[in-house]
Design a protein that fits this description.
The chain is mostly helical. It contains 12 helices and 8 strands.
Length: 241
């Protein structure tokens, strides 16, 4: 198809654009202009993303070793460049879900999750990404300063669901999960950790009674039903390294 051309220049041309759209806009414009310019000027884009298609992009993504947006002097990461390439290719939804659900290449999963967040409708975003909140695989992230830190897949996906900006990319605001539940578009989410958390709560209650303490845990709720407390993170072993 013509919009799979290796050069993104034609798709970036705003004069009379008539190609496919996502959320009523040119898909490449889901990334901000300065970021797009840095991607298309980068060595990785010119040398590694040339002529990629949905199949060969999968191969390229399998070689990724970290996630991130821009770093140092606003240099785009390979992760961000391949996201931009996905927005140019616009693969079929079934292909994106194959990227997401395969288990061998975790950075391909993370890339597909980012693409889902940018391009799918709100109810689909929750349905497709929430299962990954139980995925605790470690991810290496390149920070804006050029350093490194360790994240986990579940935290990265939670960021996609609740934050306005991830990896140098502004995200379209999602309606809260509770609103979508009220509209009948989503079923009430039952946490896969529900039984473990209830057991911990009972243990904590017993411990407080034996110690004569009535203080409750301080729990942070992100607004989409993904409640986490520091004490529970420690019990469950979820605290990031």
């Amino acid at each position: 198809m013509s919009h799979h051309a290796p050069d993104a220049t034609r798709m970036l041309d705003t004069r009379g654009y008539t190609g496919p759209t996502i959320h009523n806009t040119n898909p490449l414009h889901l990334l901000e202009t300065p970021v797009r310019d840095r991607i298309t000027d980068s060595y990785y884009w010119k040398e590694q993303c040339f002529a990629l298609n949905a199949a060969t992009l999968c191969d390229k993504a399998s070689t990724l070793t970290y996630i991130g947006g821009t770093y140092g002097q606003q240099k785009p990461t390979p992760f961000l460049c391949l996201l931009f390439k996905l927005l140019q290719l616009l693969p079929e939804k079934e292909i994106v879900l194959l990227y997401l659900r395969q288990r061998e290449f975790k950075y391909l999963t993370a890339l597909a999750a980012f693409y889902v967040r940018l391009t799918f409708e709100a109810k689909e975003v929750f349905r497709v990404l929430e299962p990954l909140l139980g995925d605790w695989r470690k991810l290496r992230r390149r920070t804006r300063e050029g350093g490194w830190r360790v994240d986990h897949m579940d935290q990265f996906v939670d960021d996609l669901l609740v934050k306005d900006r991830v990896c140098a990319t502004s995200l379209r605001k999602l309606p809260s999960r509770m609103i979508l539940e009220d509209l009948g578009q989503l079923e009430v989410r039952i946490s896969p950790l529900g039984e473990e958390i209830e057991d911990i709560d009972r243990d904590d209650d017993d411990e407080r009674r034996s110690n004569g303490s009535g203080e409750d845990d301080v729990e942070a709720v992100n607004g989409n039903g993904h409640a986490v407390s520091q004490e529970r993170e420690q019990h469950l072993g979820l605290t990031a390294i």
